[in-house]
Amino acid sequence: MQTGKTVVRFHIPILIIALALLIPSAIGMMSTRINYDMLTYLPGDMDTVTGQDILMEEFGKGAFSFVLAENMAPEDVAAMRQQMEQIQHVDTVLWYDSIMDLSVPMELLPQKIYDAFNSGNVTMLAVFLETSTSSDDTMDAIRQIRAVAGKQCFVSGMSAMVTDLKDLCEQEEPAYVGLAVLLACAAMMLFMDSWLIPFVFLLSIGMAILLNMGTNYFLGEISYLTKALSAVLQLAVTMDYSIFLWDSYKEQKQLTGDKNEAMAKAIDRTLAAVVGSSVTTIAGFIALCFMSFTLGRDLGAVMAKGVILGVIGCVTTLPSLILVLDKALERTRHRSLMPEAGHMAKGITGIFPAVLILTALILYPAYKGYRETNETVYYELTQTLPQDMDFAVANSRLQEEFGIGATHMVLVDSGIDPQRIREMIHEMEQTDGVRTVLGLESVTGPLIPQDILPQPVTGLLKNDRWELILINSEYKTASDEVNDQIVALNSIIKQYDPAGMLIGEAPCTRDMLEVTDTDFKVVNTISIIAIFLIIALVEKSVSLPFILVAVIELAIFINLGLPSYTGARLPFIAPVCISTIQLGATVDYAILMTTRYKRERHDGREKREAVNIALASSIPSIIVSAMGLFAATFGVALYSNIDMIRSLCSLMARGAIISMLCVILILPALFMLLDPVICATSVGFTDKKHRKNLKKTEVSI
User: Fold this and answer.
1) Does residue 576 contact residue 513 with C-beta atoms inside 8 Å?
2) How many beta carbons lie within 10 A of that of residue 405, not counting itself?
3) How high is the mean pLDDT in each 10-residue block of the chain (701 residues)?
4) How many angstroms separate the Cα of 246 from the Cα of each of 2, 16, 192, 265, 658?
5) HSE-CB for 353 with a 13 A CA cutoff
6) Which of these, 569, 594, 578, lies nearest to 678 by C-alpha position?
7) Can you spell out the DSSP letters for 640-688?
8) Distance (Å, whole) CA 505 – CA 134
């Protein structure tokens, strides 16, 4: 009991240290860079990523956007182009006057080139920046380009999307935390026995969250998804530990009558229980770190760190706050709205055969829906944002006016004979869905020397090592058509240059599809194996890991299978993360009930009585914990306009309720059915001497 006594003895200094740490934590949080570009998390050895690096290193260009100017005189467009080129980090703005003087009519251009940049009363400028797609400098430049362009112009492209995403995130993120705190607090006030304790919990967890966000500074940067979800997830997942401590403290206080002694014992008991419980949650998040798509490593590392800090806060900061506020907590006690668990437990165990039959009936449709999850998944990042945002309107106009759904870039050896390049361009132009292919050879032709072109144009498209070719596609990013087109274009490129590369948003997105599909299987397998082994060690059983993991996996099947029946679409990252998060976060419910069931069987209780007691004692904690996770995520799901955040929170909220119902209904039924197997394959379930003594006592009575 040394840890508990130490915390109780130094609870005032602990609070002072915790409060002092909030200052550097806040500074660290504000200094941590946020990454809004999902494509940067692709493995660095892929051609698409390597090509982007070459484009930056060799050509000094990273970001790329089209600007559509509507109903503007050529002189005004030329003036606007010059203004844009003066913006910091804008490298080149290509338009007609980059090649020809305005005194020369545009109609003298080759028809293919003219049509590529003009449509009715709309003309198009190509803007190249010297910074990467999602850098802070690029986003600042996009805002300035929009300011110069004015209302009659539209700025499209990935950088424009990232800029709008950042602005929306910064607008919504305070509301995420506010909603999570408000609704979680409301749930706890209803289901717990004190009006004040939810606020104490939230203060303690809030300190741990701020410390977690502050220490992200040492990671260099985190994704916007991690920033948006980690606070909500940490609040929801570590709420259990606070509930364990409070319940243990109340129990010990009734036995001892002294708050300090009661808290010391409660800390030690909670620490033993919470460490075992948190290990499964941490294992679930660490499994995300094995994703090739390194967004998983980003989210997994931050959340695993958050759970560890949550455990530390639960046995240091929270006990200190409770001791300081003990009198106020006593004055604000009230009767909990939690229903009587004893009668509910007997009713559930009484109908266990019906529960098993129902489970058998839903198993196949749940698994079938889960297997078909990939059919409900989308990969186009632009779909995660409202379609009335500036970038979405610009992309829509680009599609309507010029038939451009995506733009690819080709990098090939600049030493290849120009005639061979023309042949390659001709083949690419014949590929389905390719609207235009623009390179030096397509601009000059075989009879016109490239030397007559202005240096900004030749420097943009060719250097000593590489030649850059632009391809405008009619197909949208992440569509099946564009993915087939990418395969065909890559085949053509490799014929002419085995080291050639096709890069751009659509090729990167296709790579992301392949990577995350593999990650889904790998991460799911790792999380199941890790949690299986932890349960086996904690419960000292061969059979229980199969049973507990099976129950939560069924809950995951139901949760992820529902979209295939409802027609809902999920962002690509949702299935990968949710299967692991739901397993790690809710398997605790099953472990809690199993531990009590094991204790009762060891003490000599018969099967039905042991299951009834385990279920009755676990129902309140499971309901409060599940409702806390539901409340913390449901409000964000309703509020957010970012579909990636909305979908993940919706799945977490629904998953908490489904897991709760599966554990409360199905797990006891499996205990009733498999009790002989469990006792035979587990250590600590039977104590024959204790059972014999119990039977003698019952006979004498």
Assistant:
1) no
2) 20
3) 85 94 95 90 84 80 87 90 92 81 74 79 90 90 92 89 91 87 84 85 92 94 89 82 85 86 88 80 88 90 92 92 90 76 89 95 94 85 87 90 90 89 91 88 57 60 84 91 94 93 90 85 88 88 93 94 90 84 83 87 89 90 85 90 91 93 95 92 71 47 39
4) 19, 22, 10, 12, 26
5) 0
6) 594
7) -S-HHHHHHHHHHHHHHHHHHHIIIIIHHHHHHHHHHHHHHTBSSS--H
8) 12
Q: How many CA atoms lie within 13 A of 233 on its CB side?
A: 34
The closest alpha carbon to 381, from 468, 510, 481, belongs to 510
* Tokens found for residue 562: 């529902």
Q: Determine the Cα–Cα distance for residues 225 and 302; give it in Å rounded to an integer.
A: 11
Amino acid 253 reads K
Backbone angles phi, psi at 407, to 5 degrees: -120, 125
Closest Cα to residue 302, out of 389, 209, 236?
A: 209
Q: For residue 180, what are the contacts with CB-CB under 8 A and spacing of at least 6?
A: 231, 232, 235, 236, 631, 632, 633, 635, 636
Q: Are 656 and 626 in contact (CB under 8 A)?
A: yes
220 near 40, Cβ under 8 Å? no
Can you spell out the DSSP letters for 49-61? HHHHHHHHHHHS-
- Distance between CA atoms of residues 78 and 144, nearest Å: 17
